[in-house]
Design goal:
The chain is an alpha+beta fold. The protein contains two helices and six strands, in the order E-E-H-E-E-E-H-E. Strand 4 and strand 5 form a beta hairpin. The chain is globular and about 30 Å long. The chain starts with a strand and ends in an 11-residue tail after the last strand.
């Protein structure tokens, strides 16, 4: 498993869990980053901070420290992506 801060631009991932605690975890959840939601990584600043993502239909900028608390896995796409032959 990796964290959101390690994901490359143009990738879509699914949130597995939030490893933060207390108010930080609550703030991340209030922004719409909850278990099972898909996140598309739009941009990463030249020095890696902040990271711009699309989640639940809106753009969100996250600090690298906050993105490091979000454990993700690759998102699975539905149908049509299988090469036959």
């Amino acid at each position: 498993m990796s964290t959101l801060k390690e994901i490359k631009c143009g990738s879509t991932v699914r949130v597995v869990k939030l490893s933060g605690s207390g108010t930080v975890k609550r703030r991340i959840m209030d922004m719409g980053l909850t278990k099972g939601v898909e996140v598309f990584v739009r941009k990463v600043a030249p020095l890696g901070d902040p990271i711009e993502v699309t989640v639940r239909g809106y753009e969100l900028s996250l600090r690298k420290a906050d993105a490091g608390m979000i454990v993700v896995e690759p998102a699975e796409k539905d149908g049509g992506d299988v090469n036959v032959g």
